[in-house]
Each structure stands twice: as structure tokens, then as C-alpha cells.
Amino acid sequence: GVITGSGDFINNGTLTMNVGAVTLETRQLQNNSLLGWESTGALLIADSAVVINNPSATFEIQNNEKVRPEEDGDGAIVNYGFISKTAGGGETILELPLNIYGSISILDGSIISEYGGIHSNAEINCESGGSFEFDSKINLIENTLFSGNGSVDVHGATLTIEGAGLTVSENTLMQFTAGIITLNAPLSVDGELDWSKGRLQGTDTLSINSLLTLSGSSAKDLSEAVIINSGDFNWSGSGDLILHDGAGIVNSPGAIIDFQSNALLDYVLIDGGGWLENYGLIKKSSGIDESYIDA
Description:
Layout: E1 2-3, E2 9-11, E3 14-17, E4 22-25, E5 28-31, E6 34-37, E7 43-46, E8 50-53, E9 58-61, E10 66-69, E11 76-79, E12 82-85, E13 91-94, E14 98-100, E15 103-106, E16 109-113, E17 117-120, E18 123-126, E19 130-134, E20 138-147, E21 151-168, E22 173-183, E23 187-189, E24 192-195, E25 198-202, E26 205-208, E27 211-214, E28 220-223, E29 226-229, E30 232-235, E31 241-244, E32 247-251, E33 256-259, E34 264-267, E35 274-278, E36 281-284, E37 292-293
Parallel strand pairs: 1-4, 2-5, 3-6, 4-7, 5-8, 6-9, 7-10, 8-11, 9-12, 10-13, 11-14, 12-15, 13-16, 15-18, 16-19, 17-20, 18-20, 19-21, 20-21, 21-22, 21-23, 22-24, 22-25, 23-26, 24-27, 25-28, 26-29, 27-30, 28-31, 29-32, 30-33, 31-34, 32-35, 33-36, 34-37
């Protein structure tokens, strides 16, 4: 079906999209109540159309389809209310900007954001078996919470953290598998951060209050930012950690850095190098060869 014409299309009741592929053309779809997407076909956004989910409204996704623009960069989804993925079990892929000023919850399967967006005063909740993926482009994050028993993944995107920062709640897994995270404000991890590849940079801090795992064989870059470990820092992967531009690591009293491989903590002198301060315990619990600290 096609929704087209001039002026806003306003939903104050229950609107269900269940007729295959749907095209929103030119207009703003203003949802003030319940918008359900059950179709086994894509949602096409054309001619700068926008889906706006207003405060107290719900946009419920029950499929594994794509939201895609007619032309690259066309349209957006803007959420001030509540977006949920409750069925499908697979991937819902967003190929246009997603701006979150409310909350999003994934109970089943995953939502993949491929075109970036702004996430301010937002919550991204992923329950067990659910995940949200930042796949590409630039994402501005400020005063935002990642919550639930599932995972939030940074896989090739750029996350720029501003304002009051980003918090990863207890029991939530954040996976950093590729891309760039820029800390212009704090990133506080009360759950787990698994860092297997990518660059962490910026002028602020990554605070580990529970668990940081360095996994995988790829090298990781830490530039200017400071990691403050107040929990467990498990280095299980063989990939080195390279420090640039005065980056640092503080191992707080009672905290543990555990070398579980033969990786290297290194610095680039020409880029200002880096440093390590230990007030807790550094140990090597596995790996048959040497682990080097060159900082």
C-alpha cells in the first residue's frame, strides 16, 4: 500500500501495516497511539517522508523486514515514545537515520541501525536473545542508557558520546567489534564491555565497574582517553592494545587486570605514548609465553 499526499498523516488510534510492502511518500506519519508493523515486505520511505513516534505512543515491530529510503539519505524515523520489536526472531534493518529521544526495546531478534542518528535522553533495552546493532555511519549519544539482559553491538559505526554520557547497566553486554567510539563525555560500564576490535578515543574516561574483556586477535587502539578499571579487566585475546596521544589505564584499588594470553600493551612514542598506573592487582593466569607491558 501507499500513504501519500500533502500534510501530516495522524494516527490517534490503532494503525496496523500488514499488507506486504508499504510506501510512505512525502508525508509525515505522526503516531500518537499504536502503530503496528506486521507486513512481510519492506517499509519504503520516499520524498523526505518521516515516521514520528510521539511521546506515549508505541511503534511495534513484528517482522524481519527493512525500512529503506527511496534515495540514499532520504527520510528518517524519529522516536519520542516507545519502539518495540516483539516478534520475527531475525533482523529488522533500518537503512535510514534513527533518532531516539525516548526508548526502544528488543524482546525478540535484532534491530540493525545502518545509517546513524541522534540518541539523546534515550534508553536502548535488549532483553535475553535480543540485540541492537550500530552498524555504520555516525551516531551521537548523550545521556543514554543501554539496559536489559541482551546485547548492544558497535560493529563498524562511529559513536560520539557527549553531554551526560552513556551508561551500560548491570547485566547488559556491550560488544565493540569494529568502528570508533569517541569519548567527549564518560562511558560508564556497570555490565560488561567486550572489546575485540576498533578504536577508543577522546578526552574523557571509560569507567569499568564490573567487567572489561579484550578478546580476539585484532589490535585495538586507545587514543588520549583513560580507562579506569574498578572491576575485572580480562585480556583473553591475542590482539595487542596500542596507546596513543597520552592515553592511560588506571587499575584502581581492589581491581584486577588479568593477562590470559600473550598480548602486548604497547605505546606509540611519536604519538605521545601512554601510561599504566596500578593500585590493584595485575596477574597472568594463562598463556604459555610472555605478556609485555611497554608503557
